[in-house]
Design goal:
The complex is a heterodimer of chains A (about 450) and B (about 250). With about 450 residues, chain A is α+β, with helices and mostly antiparallel strands. Chain A is about 25% helix and about 25% strand. Chain A contains 13 helices and 21 strands. Chain A has an eight-stranded antiparallel sheet with strand order 16-12-14-13-19-20-18-21. In chain A, strands 5-6-10-8-9 form a five-stranded antiparallel sheet. A four-stranded mixed sheet of chain A has the order 1-2-4-3, with helices on one face. In chain A, helix 9 (about 335-350) runs antiparallel to helix 10 (about 390-405). Chain B has about 250 residues and is α/β, with parallel strands linked by helices. In chain B, strands 3-2-1-4-5-6-9 form a seven-stranded parallel sheet, with helices on both faces. In chain B, strands 7-8 form a two-stranded parallel sheet. In chain B, helix 4 (about 110-135) packs parallel to helix 5 (about 155-175). Chain B is globular, with a radius of gyration of 17 Å.
Chain lengths: ~450, ~250
C-alpha cells in the first residue's frame, strides 16, 4: 500500500473539509502496520465516504481507504450466514446473496456503504421497528485494535471481547478497524416488494397512517417541511413487504423472482458543477409540492427491491445538488409523536429549505453504549449548509430532542455541541472507558472525535 | 470547525485590534468557541482585551501571549505558544499600524516601521501559522487587508502599499493551501470606526467593526475567500480602478 500524501476529503454532505494521508490496506497486516506507524494525529478507516459529516476524515493524520478489503470470503446458504471483508459494499453483497435467494436483513437508504461503515454507524433501515439495526445480525468481527492485535470479537464471549464488540457497533471506527465480519442473512421470496402508498394531507393523518403501516416489514414517510396552514406536516407514507413469487409483475419486467442487478445505465447523474443556492426555500417548496402531488396512492404495488430500499441510488452524485457549500443531514429520534410535531413546527417556522425529510418508526434499542435507535420516531432532514441561521435552528432542534429524552445520530453529525453528547448518549462513559482501555494513546482518531471531544 | 464554519478554537494575532476582537466576538456567537489566544505587544491592553472576549463569548479559556510583530526572530516561539493547547480552527491576522501619510516624506523611518509591522510582521506570522495549519490538515487564516491596498491614494499610500502586499500574499497563500484543507480569507474593509481611525473624517460607506465580524462569520459559513465590508465596496472599488489617474487624483478620498 502506498500512502497518498495530503488528499482533500469531505463527508457525503461536502460541508466538512480536511486533508489527510490516505493509505489503502489490502489485508489485515496492512491495517496493523498503519495503526502501529500512526503519528500523533492518528488514523481512521473510511469506506465509500457516505458518512454525511466528518466521521471518516482525519485532518493531518492517516485515513485508511478500506476499498482493498473487498472479498466475500464465504457464503453458507444452508446456514444463511456470510463472511465478508469490511470494504465490501452492501450493494455488491446484496447482488451476490441474490443468487442464493438471500438478502441482508437490514440495509440503509443507500447500498453504497461498506460493511465496515455499516458496523461503525450501526446502520438501520425502514424495518427497524421489526428487525432492529445492522448490528443485530453481526455474529463475529475481526478487529485490529490500537496495540496492533488482530482480535476476534463476538456479541457474547469472554466479557472483555463482548464489550469491544458492542462498543465497535456505532463506535465510528474509534475502537479499532473492522477487517471482516460474519453476518446472518435472510431468505427472501423474490426480488420484488409489495408496496402500499398512502398520501396524508396533514401530520395527524400521517401519524395515523403509520399505525397501519406498522404491521408491514418496511415503512417510512416523506414529510413536506415547508407546507403551511392546513397542509402542515403533509406527506407520503410508504410501507412494504417482500412480495411472494407468483405475484403479478408489472408489465415489461423480467420474468425472474431472483434479485438482479438494477439497470443503472439510464440513471440520472448530477453534473459536477451546480451553482450554490440552487436548492432554496422557493425551489424546494415547489419540488415538495410537485412530489406530493405526483405520489399516487396505491396498495400492493410491485416495486423492484433495491428501488424501494435505495431510492436515492437512482441519482448519481445527488449530494452535488447542494452546490459547492454542501449540506448537513440532521437525524434525531424522539420517544413520543408530540416532539415530532414540535420539531416540524420549528423547521416550518424557520422556512428551512428541507427537501428530504424522512420520518420512520424505531423499535427496541440495541445493547451497545453508542446505539442510536431507541423506541419512537426518527426524523432525518437534509439542509444546505451555507444558509444563514441554520446552525441556530439545529441547536433549537437539539433542545427539543433533549427535552423529549431523545437522541441525535452521531454517524450523521457535523455540528453538534460537544456538551450534548452525554445527554444524547447517557452510556457514553462506558464507551469512553472501553476506548481508554483498548486505545489509551488515541491512535484511532477522526475529525468528529476531536470536534466532539469523544 | 463544524459544517457551518463555526470554530472551537481561535487565535487573534494583533490581540488588541478592535476589528480583530469584533471578529472573535462574532465567531463566539455560535456557542461552539472553547479556546481563545490573544497575541500582542501591549500587556495591559491584552489583559483588557481578554476580559472583553470573556464577556462577549462566555469563553473562560482566554490566554494572552506577548509578542512584537517586528521581531520576526521570535515568531517561531510565538506560533509554538499559539498552538500549545492543540489545533486552531481559525487564526486571525490583525497586526496593523496606520502611520501618518502626511509626514511620510519627512520621516521615512516611521514609514518603514509601518511596513515592518503590517507587511513584514504579517508575512512572518502568516507563513508560520499557515505551516501549522497545513500540518493539522484543516483551519482558516483570516487576513485583515484593506480597500486602501486596492489603489494607491495620496492620503494613505504607505499604509495602502503594506496592505496591498499583504493582500496579494494572502491570496496566493490561500490558493497554495487550498489542497491542504486550509482556507485563507482575505478581508477588505473600507473605513471602519475604531480607535485606530478615531478623529478622522468618515468617508461614505464607513462601517462598524461588528459589520466586519459578521462578514467574516458569513464568509466562513459560505466558503467565501474574499470579503468586502460593506459588500458595496466591491463594485465601487472596481469602478474606481478604471478611473484615469488625473481624475482619481482630484477625488477627495
Amino acid at each position: 500500500m502506498s500512502p497518498d500524501q495530503g488528499r482533500l476529503l469531505t463527508g457525503w454532505g461536502r460541508a466538512t473539509r480536511s486533508s489527510a494521508t490516505v493509505a489503502s490496506p489490502m489485508r489485515a497486516q496492512d491495517v496493523v502496520a498503519a495503526v502501529m506507524q500512526a503519528g500523533p494525529r492518528g488514523v481512521i478507516p473510511r469506506g465509500l465516504g457516505r458518512s454525511y459529516g466528518d466521521q471518516a476524515q482525519n485532518a493531518g493524520g492517516v485515513v485508511l481507504d478500506t476499498g482493498g478489503l473487498d472479498r466475500i470470503l464465504q457464503v453458507d446458504a444452508a446456514a444463511a450466514t456470510v463472511t465478508v471483508q469490511s470494504g465490501v459494499s452492501l450493494g455488491t453483497l446484496t447482488q451476490v446473496l441474490g443468487r442464493y435467494g438471500l438478502a441482508l436483513p437490514v440495509v440503509p437508504g443507500t447500498a453504497a456503504v461498506t460493511v465496515g461503515g455499516a458496523v461503525a454507524a450501526d446502520v438501520h433501515g425502514k424495518n427497524h421497528h421489526r428487525d432492529g439495526s445492522f448490528g443485530r445480525y453481526v455474529s463475529r468481527m475481526t478487529i485490529v485494535t490500537a496495540d496492533g492485535a488482530v482480535r476476534q470479537v463476538r456479541p457474547v464471549d469472554a466479557p472483555g471481547d463482548a464489550a469491544l464488540f458492542w462498543g465497535t457497533l456505532g463506535g465510528l471506527g474509534l475502537t479499532g478497524a473492522v477487517v471482516d465480519v460474519d453476518l446472518r442473512v435472510v431468505p427472501v421470496p423474490s426480488g420484488w416488494m409489495s408496496v402500499d402508498v398512502v398520501r396524508a394531507r396533514d401530520l395527524d393523518e400521517l401519524l395515523d397512517a403509520f399505525e397501519s403501516a406498522d404491521a408491514r416489514r418496511y415503512s417510512a414517510a416523506w414529510v413536506d417541511c415547508l407546507a403551511r396552514g392546513s397542509g402542515a406536516g403533509r406527506g407520503v407514507v410508504t410501507s412494504a413487504d417482500h412480495a411472494e413469487p407468483g405475484h403479478k409483475r408489472p408489465r415489461g419486467s423480467q420474468r425472474s423472482d431472483r434479485w438482479r442487478p438494477p439497470d443503472r445505465s439510464g440513471r440520472v447523474r448530477v453534473p459536477p458543477w451546480v451553482p450554490a443556492g440552487l436548492l432554496n426555500r422557493w425551489s424546494v417548496a415547489a419540488f415538495n409540492d410537485g412530489w406530493y402531488r405526483a405520489s399516487r396512492p396505491g396498495t400492493g404495488v410491485l416495486q423492484e427491491r433495491s428501488r424501494y430500499l435505495h431510492p436515492l441510488d437512482g441519482v448519481a452524485g445527488w449530494n452535488r445538488l447542494y452546490g459547492p457549500r454542501g449540506f448537513v443531514q440532521y437525524q434525531c429520534v424522539v420517544p413520543a409523536a408530540q416532539a415530532v410535531v414540535d420539531l416540524l413546527a420549528l423547521l416550518r417556522s424557520a422556512r428551512a429549505p428541507a427537501f428530504l425529510a424522512v420520518l420512520k418508526r424505531f423499535g427496541a434499542a440495541g445493547p451497545g453504549p453508542l446505539a442510536f435507535p431507541r423506541p419512537g420516531w426518527t426524523l432525518a432532514v437534509d439542509l444546505p449548509a451555507g444558509v444563514d441561521g441554520l446552525g441556530r435552528l439545529l441547536d433549537d432542534l437539539d433542545a427539543v430532542v433533549a427535552t423529549a429524552g431523545g437522541s441525535v445520530y452521531l454517524a450523521k453529525d457535523a455540528r453538534l455541541r460537544p456538551e450534548l453528547v452525554p445527554v444524547f448518549y447517557p452510556r457514553i462513559d462506558d464507551w469512553r472507558e472501553l476506548r481508554a482501555q483498548v486505545d489509551p494513546s488515541r491512535r484511532w482518531q477522526s475529525d468528529l472525535a476531536r470536534r466532539l471531544s469523544l | 470547525m463544524n459544517a457551518f464554519g463555526d470554530p472551537q478554537s481561535v487565535a487573534l494575532v494583533g490581540g488588541t485590534s478592535d476589528i480583530g476582537l469584533a471578529v472573535v466576538a462574532a465567531l463566539g456567537r455560535s456557542g461552539r468557541l472553547e479556546r481563545v489566544v490573544l497575541a500582542g505587544r501591549d500587556r495591559a491592553g491584552l489583559a483588557e482585551a481578554a476580559q472583553l472576549v470573556r464577556a462577549a463569548t462566555g469563553v473562560d479559556a482566554v490566554r494572552t501571549e506577548l509578542f512584537d510583530a517586528t521581531e520576526t526572530a521570535t515568531h517561531d516561539g510565538l506560533v509554538d505558544r499559539l498552538f500549545a493547547d492543540g489545533d486552531l480552527d481559525v487564526a486571525i491576522l490583525a497586526v496593523g499600524a496606520l502611520g501618518d501619510a502626511d509626514s511620510a516624506l519627512d520621516d521615512a523611518d516611521a514609514a518603514v516601521r509601518v511596513a515592518e509591522v503590517n507587511y513584514v510582521g504579517g508575512l512572518s506570522v502568516g507563513l508560520r501559522v499557515a505551516g501549522r495549519l497545513r500540518s493539522q490538515g484543516h483551519g482558516a487564516l483570516v487576513v485583515l487587508s484593506s480597500v486602501a491596498g486596492q489603489r494607491g491614494r495620496a492620503s494613505n499610500f504607505v499604509y495602502g502599499s503594506t496592505k496591498a502586499g499583504l493582500d496579494v500574499f494572502a491570496q496566493g497563500l490561500g490558493d497554495r493551501l487550498h489542497a491542504h484543507g486550509v482556507r485563507v480569507v482575505v478581508v477588505r474593509p473600507g473605513f471602519v470606526r475604531t480607535r485606530m481611525t478615531a478623529g478622522r473624517r468618515q468617508p461614505p460607506l464607513a462601517c462598524d467593526r461588528d459589520d466586519v465580524g459578521r462578514a467574516v462569520v458569513d464568509a466562513l459559513r459560505r466558503g467565501r475567500d474574499t470579503v468586502w465590508v460593506p459588500p458595496l465596496l466591491r463594485p465601487v472599488m472596481a469602478a474606481l480602478s478604471w478611473l484615469p489617474r488625473p481624475v482619481f487624483r482630484r477625488l477627495d478620498l
